[in-house]
Amino acid sequence: MTRRIAIFDTTLRDGEQSPGAGMNASEKLIVARQLLRLGVDVIEAGFPASSPGDFESVQRVAAEVADAAVVCALARAVPRDIEAAAEALAGAARPRIQTGLGVSPSHLRDKLRITEQEAVDRAVAAVRLARSLCDDVQFYAEDAGRADLSFLIRILEAAIAAGATVVNVPDTTGYSLPEAFGARIARIREEVRGIERIVLSVHCHNDLGLATALSLAGIRCGAQQVECTLNGLGERAGNTAMEEVVMAIRVHGAELDAHSDIDAREFTRASHLVSAVTGIKVQPNKAIVGANAFAHSSGVHQDGVMKERTTYEILDPASVGADGSGIVLTARSGRSALRRRLADLGFPLEEAAFGQVYARFLGMADRKKEVYDEDLEALMAEHDRGHDALWSLKALQVSCGMPVVAAASVVLVDREGGEHPASATGTGPIDATYRAIDEVVQAKGDLREFTVQAITRGMDALGEVTVRVEDADGRVCSGRGADGDIIVSSAKAYLNALNRMLR
Ligand code: KIV
Ligand code: ZN
Predict the structure, then answer these.
(1) What is the sign of the dihedral through the CA atoms of 339, 341, 343 and 347?
(2) For 90-136, what is the HEC assignment?
(3) What's the predicted TM-score (pTM) here?
(4) Which ligand number lies closest to the CA of residue 74?
(5) Does residue 461 contact residue 455 with C-beta atoms inside 8 Å?
(6) How far, in Å, from the CA of 271 to the mean position of ligand 1?
(7) Can you tell me whether residue 285 is helix, strand or coil?
(8) Angle between helices 149-161 and 116-133 (to 10 degrees)
(9) CA distance 365 to 371
(10) Does the domain spanning 389-502 belong to CATH 3.40.50.300?
(11) Of 140, 156, 225, 240, which is best to mutate to test ligand 1, by the most ligand atoms within 8 angstroms of its C-beta?
């Protein structure tokens, strides 16, 4: 039997640190439920000391997850953070605090401005405090990929002696080459006293496009836990993508002496869900979950695949849930068919919420006739966005064309149900609409990116708009909206981004 590798998901913490990917507590809950369907071992739910919203997210995820997985909260090596993490995890059945600090010369000298000895003292004090509040404590040695190896060994050893149950070796800046990172993990396994009693974890970033390779090198050399995110979401170029590392383990399990217990058939659904919640799409050629990951366009490849799938496919699309259901719903499908399909897609609903979704579904089915899974995912994303929206769109009318000046009138609704009309002109219908929205919301953001895409095929397909908007402090918020009318989608996407910005 090969070694079982624990899958530590940090989509809700490191993933959401990606610009524009911020999630509120309800959004984190939706993703957490999908993480449970995947069967991850650990869910890092947030950084409680960073904001009241993140504190609440950790509490709510912990309540939802119960004992189905370990729930972890991040804390820098300072008492205030560690106490906040422990408090947020108070209701968790299997809590874990992850605490630590930078250990590379650059972090010690330029960021923390402390000596190596001071760093060891801080690490020990942090782990001891965390252990006095929680039985499961993970110590992270930030920027371990660039740390002096003998100092890294020393600080990990001190953290273990102070009570750490897991030590995490991150290549925070994605600097390493896989062989060198693997060698580092091997030296840690050989030389750190007490390492045999605890779990050794790797956490890699993708700055050189090597995050998955680094994680696999770590696993090959003795790591027992791998930290990753769905779609590889994360700071800068992102983190190790869970779908990549898990499928690589599956394909090369014997060589790596490793397996995981993840239900990989959930990957496609998980990827769509994270994109819908964060507004961040994956590129079509993304491994495992990209739209083209199993598409064959050249005649030679098509010929090969038709004769024998494995000529050009090392994975069966069905093994990662990319085979598509082929189920199409219509207005006549009825309530129970919709309820069942939504549950299969990962959206079990209570009666009241289902009633609202069913009404929207009928409106969509009237317009579009055939409703695909992608349409239902968009519909559910709209439904979820509606929950916490400070502003929503009630009505929109535009006039545009040539040679008229584009004009838009909107009616927005605030949380108390108050209606706010406004009108504006602009260089085109979308500019006019956004100016009218700005007049009501008074939270103008700079539009940095705007994309529109048909969700499914056909002239009646929903058009989905994704925007990225930057506020005066340089924070980027993404927003998404879907509708049969792309001007309405554009208005919804912009409002979604402004709602996130205001929150
Ligand atoms: O990349 C990193 O070093 C981290 C730590 C906080 C674990 O995300
Ligand atoms: Zn990280």
Answers:
(1) negative
(2) CCCCCEEEEEEEECCHHHHHHHHCCCHHHHHHHHHHHHHHHHHHCCC
(3) 0.86
(4) 1
(5) yes
(6) 22
(7) coil
(8) 30
(9) 6
(10) no
(11) 140
Asked if 16 and 231 count as a contact pair (C-beta separation under 8 A), the reply is: no
* Edge-to-edge order in the sheet of strand 476-483: 446-454, 463-470, 476-483
Structure tokens at 236: 């800068």
CA 351 to centroid of ligand 2, rounded, Å: 39
Residues, beta carbon < 5 Å, ion ligand 2? 14
Most distant CA pair in the chain, distance? 77
Ligand sitting nearest the alpha carbon of 141? 1
234 Cβ inside 6 Å of ligand 1: no
Q: What is the pLDDT of residues 253-295, one digit of tens each?
A: 999 999 999 999 999 999 999 998 888 889 999 999 998 999 8
Give the containing element (helix H, strand E) for 303: helix 299-307
- Report which of residues 72 and 466 the model is more confident about: 72
Q: Quick check: 331 and 359 in contact, CB under 8 A?
A: no
Distance 471 CA to ligand 1 centre (A): 26
Domain 3-278 has CATH 3.20.20.70: yes
